[in-house]
Amino acid sequence: MKLPKKMLLSLLIGASVIVTAACSDTDENANEEGTPTEEQAPEENGETAEQPEMPEPDLEGVPDLVAEVNGEEINKEEFESAYTAQFQQMAMQAQMSGQEVDQTQLKEQIAESLVSQELLVQETANRNIEASEEEVNETLTALAEQNGLASSEEFLTALEEQGLSEEEVMGQVESQVKVEKLIAEESGESEASEEELQEFYDQMKAQQEEAGGEELPPFEDIKSELEAQLVQQKENEAVQELVAKLREGADVTVHI
Q: At 129, is the secondary structure helix, strand, or coil?
């Protein structure tokens, strides 16, 4: 587990790679039908083919001050933590696809994502959005569970070993709760109609067929996953619209 500073919000707008639950379901079905997994790599001349070596993140030339957002600074340490975490995810995906990670582009995306994140945090203060102690503790417990830990106490201990104090973690979790409330305000009661779900399913099915992939499970079998994905998509769109609006009236300087 690694949760870098300033990244508990997990709002890498534009840099995150979203994989639908439906596609995950398809991959699971494919494995059940005998498609080789990473652990079951094809053999060449009787020997298991070696996986290519994982690339290293290029952090050369990152300035001490990465960006300024309405007077608030985003420093090198925050950027490097965010960049390294996202690079590791993308490098694993690139390794499977055989394509290299465009690190120049990724650096720009991470810098913009951190700016967006800071704008959202500042907007929660502008709107006087509060987070109760109960809400913070519930979110902390949920984060612990997501990281396979039995309690929030174990979660705090693990982060302390990574150099994050309890006070710092609680502050970040509080910010996360506030941002989630802000997003809820912007997106409203996001729902997906039956028509939208069917259209989304048909699009995914056509893409799978065009790519020569495995056939999607029946619509009814993955309907709940499709709905979750569409709702998330609507929330993401609402966040991007809000960030764009906040950016117009903000004093932002990016040095990377």
A: coil
